[in-house]
Design a protein that fits this description.
The protein contains 13 helices and 13 strands. By secondary structure, it is α/β, with parallel strands linked by helices. Bound molecules: 4'-deoxy-4'-aminopyridoxal-5'-phosphate. Belongs to the class-II pyridoxal-phosphate-dependent aminotransferase family. Histidinol-phosphate aminotransferase subfamily.
Length: 357
């Protein structure tokens, strides 16, 4: 039989796909590994138009996001989750031999989207405390052995939970007008005051990513957004698939972005933040916890004396968390999504028992 592996593109043969929480799987009953919202809401669904292809950019969904963030429609692109936006940006801006800057530990899809699309990747060092180092990003851009087109920055960062300071971002945007800085604000609803959205009007090389997967509790529908200068949106529209947003997705997204949906989102965020801070206090009191990282999102990154032992014990108990053991600077850390009070109590019971051993 033909060896299809040999038939595949060279770069695909070498590709290691993104290890999403769902791909890793795991047998359990409590899933706190994907930063999802713990509860789904009720939506009305009309099936009478499913025989028709949907609009490429459903009008009400684009308008809903434009109103929510205070931008014009031509500054908004709706995509199949934030993930599609990441890939589209690479495909639109990186020619063969060009590439991107990332600063690990960060969201893994930036690097994988680059590799999938034959773009080069170079790495910026972080400070000792793992905060982003703007000077190191500048150095990575200047010293890369290829032309840097995109810099990916998550703020709030995943899994670090931190915000990239505005003055440092402004300096980079000014110093490198021909580099596009992609600021991924997937978690920004958990600290909306820290959004860098106001910078969009002054810096055309700033692109922002948003999603309905986190605070809007809609990871299941796959709906995200790119916010950018209209010229950039038009370029992305050349590359995007013909019908990226299915009609059911558009119907649900429209309801989520209506006034009632946004109010619900705010209540959900408020509850999650209260729970997060209570959970932090409880964690900090445990002798097996060495550090709880600051968080501006719906998760806590926790360093344990023995991270793998905690991860394994949770697994045995059916609690699925996300380990960052192998990531740079994150030995013994585990990321825990803020779930329901009951789910967090269950985690605390296991940790308290382990602390007493
Ligand atoms: N950016 C960051 C930082 C994320 O953590 C995620 C989800 N894990 C995404 C983007 C992608 O989200 P989605 O594709 O569900 O919109």
């Amino acid at each position: 039989m033909v060896d299809f592996n040999k038939l595949a593109c060279q770069h695909v043969q070498q590709l290691v796909p993104y290890q999403s929480a769902r791909r890793i799987g795991g047998h359990g009953h409590t899933f706190l590994n994907a930063n999802e919202s713990p509860k789904s809401e009720f939506y009305i669904f009309n099936s009478t138009t499913l025989n028709r292809y949907p609009d490429c950019q459903p009008f009400d969904v684009v308008q809903g996001m434009a109103d929510y963030v205070g931008l014009q429609r031509n500054q908004v692109l709706v995509t199949r989750g934030g993930d599609e936006s990441i890939g589209l940006l690479v495909r639109t801006f990186c020619d063969i031999g060009e590439g991107v800057v990332v600063a690990p530990p960060t969201y893994g899809m930036y690097e994988i989207a680059a590799q999938t699309n034959r773009a080069q990747v170079t790495y910026a060092q972080r400070h000792e405390d793992l905060s982003l180092d703007a000077a190191a990003i500048a150095k990575a851009i200047k010293e890369a052995p290829f032309k840097v087109k995109l810099v990916f920055i998550d703020s709030p960062a995943n899994p670090l939970g931190i915000i990239f300071p505005e003055d440092e971002l402004k300096k980079l945007l000014t110093d490198f007008p021909e580099v596009i800085f992609v600021l991924d604000e997937a978690y920004i609803e958990y600290d909306s005051a820290s959004s860098h959205l106001p910078l969009l009007k002054d810096y055309p090389n700033l692109v922002m990513i948003r999603t309905l997967s986190k605070a809007f509790a809609l990871a299941g529908i796959r709906c995200g957004f790119t916010l950018a200068h209209p010229d950039i949106i038009n370029l992305l529209l050349k590359v995007i698939d013909p019908y990226p947003i299915s009609d059911p997705v558009a119907q649900i997204a429209r309801q989520a972005l209506a006034r009632g949906g946004i109010e619900l989102m705010h209540e959900r965020v408020k509850k999650s933040l209260e729970l997060r801070e209570k959970f932090r206090e409880q964690l900090e009191a445990l002798p097996i916890v060495t550090r709880v990282f600051p968080s501006h999102a719906n998760f806590l990154l926790v360093e344990f004396k023995d991270g793998p032992q905690v991860f394994e014990r949770m697994l045995q108990k059916g609690i699925i968390l996300r380990s960052f053991e192998t990531k740079p600077g994150l030995k013994n850390t585990i990321r825990i999504t803020i779930g329901t009070p009951e789910e967090l109590d269950e985690v605390m019971r296991v940790l308290t028992a382990m602390s007493a051993e």
